[in-house]
């Protein structure tokens, strides 16, 4: 797997869907995969709790997918005290209110969201324009139902991308085999059902899901998932480098990702 279509950022947003669809089909026809006749369905589940003032922009970044997918967005709110629910409703996402338990929120969203393909996304992640073309190309590849994909983490501070965090994330993904939810996690509903869903996996989010999918079936996709630095926990460079060293050791010892999930949280 690996022939992806990424349109230039200047093509988003502002292009009408017909123009975007025509551009995508033209590029798809020149690839090995071709263009699918039917529009695939994608359900996005966003567990949220006090998502903050950037949430409207984050929801807006998902709207380009309406051009290439039959799209359904479900925001599962855990009792926010801010405008999270209002912003979700204004963006025409479906809203489900539950207790503030991330695994339960994700499972509740997956239970009601429509779509053969599923994306689990952190409420603080903005997907860079063009992400939907990458995901569309991924889901249309032969055998994609057996794989899960995720984007490249980029951390933004004071309006600028911190390259070092993206590099550390890449190292961590490579050696631990476990992408974070705020990288955008995409898999087929059939694959999730075969694993029994989130709660049947015994706990939270990407740790258990990615671990069960298996490192060989996790595909890094060429789109950026951007997190604001203030939403991430503060970790010293010493602690970061210690973790990288740990991932290297685990990789050399061929320790399975599921065995180190707690350590990588």
UniProtKB/TrEMBL annotation:
GO cellular component, one term: plasma membrane
The keyword Membrane belongs to this UniProt entry's keyword annotation: yes
Chain ranges of the Glycosyltransferase 2-like domain: 44-145
MF-aspect GO terms: glycosyltransferase activity
UniProt keyword terms in alphabetical order: Cell membrane, Glycosyltransferase, Membrane, Transferase
Protein location: Cell membrane
One Pfam family of this chain: Glycos_transf_2
Predominant location: membrane
Protein name per Swiss-Prot or TrEMBL: Glycosyltransferase involved in cell wall biosynthesis
Organism the protein comes from: Aestuariispira insulae
Lineage of the organism: Bacteria, Pseudomonadati, Pseudomonadota, Alphaproteobacteria, Rhodospirillales
């Amino acid at each position: 797997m690996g022939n992806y279509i990424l349109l230039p950022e200047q093509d988003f947003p502002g292009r009408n869907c017909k123009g975007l669809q025509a551009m995508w089909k033209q590029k798809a026809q020149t690839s090995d995969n071709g263009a699918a006749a039917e529009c695939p369905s994608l359900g996005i589940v966003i567990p949220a709790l006090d998502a903050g003032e950037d949430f409207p922009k984050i929801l807006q970044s998902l709207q380009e997918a309406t051009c290439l997918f039959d799209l359904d967005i479900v925001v599962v709110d855990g009792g926010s005290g801010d405008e999270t629910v209002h912003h979700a409703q204004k963006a025409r996402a479906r809203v489900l209110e539950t207790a503030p338990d991330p695994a339960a929120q994700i499972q509740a969203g997956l239970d009601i969201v429509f779509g053969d393909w599923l994306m689990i996304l952190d409420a603080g992640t903005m997907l860079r324009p063009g992400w939907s073309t990458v995901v569309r190309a991924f889901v249309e590849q032969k055998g994609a139902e057996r794989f899960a994909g995720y984007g490249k983490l980029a951390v933004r501070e004071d309006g600028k991308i911190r390259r070092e965090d993206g590099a550390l994330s890449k190292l961590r993904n490579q050696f631990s085999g476990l992408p974070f939810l705020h990288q955008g996690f995409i898999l087929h509903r059939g694959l999730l059902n075969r694993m029994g869903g989130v709660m049947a996996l015994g706990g939270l989010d990407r740790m258990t899901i990615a671990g069960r999918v298996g490192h060989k079936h996790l595909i890094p996709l060429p789109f950026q998932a951007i997190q604001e630095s203030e939403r991430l926990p503060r970790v010293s460079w010493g602690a970061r480098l210690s973790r990288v060293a740990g991932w290297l050791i685990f990789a050399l010892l061929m320790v399975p990702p599921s065995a180190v999930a707690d350590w990588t949280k």
